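Q: Hi! First time doing this. I have a protein sequence and I read that you can turn it into a structure. Is that right? Here it is:
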Amino acid sequence: MERHELMRLLADDDAASKAALAALADGGEHVVWEDWIMSSEDHAQVLTTRLRSMRRRGMETLGVERAVQILSERAQPILSGLVRASDGSWGFRFFLTENGGALVACLGIRRPDRRPSHESDQRGQTSP
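A: Yes, that's right. Below is the predicted 3D structure, encoded as structure tokens:
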């Protein structure tokens, strides 16, 4: 799917879609898995499990609960894809109708910082 087509689809009112659109407009990467069609209910089940895990780990999310609700209520096959912010700070998962003609739902997940641990910072240093 071409960038401009996806940008048109992400022009929705919810916060996750707006953020995904902004990330895409700012040079973020995107992919649509056109050969991988799953039922909306299956996506909702996977997201419900992942949401519990994300909450336990204290991850920042955007629109996950809304996406789960929408996907649970729709009984249809859907496509999915990903927008990754150019700085890698956020990933946005979006769901499209089977023909890719309309946005069904969108969500965002803030990626954890990838700072080096204190142990790795101090390798090779000797104690005074």
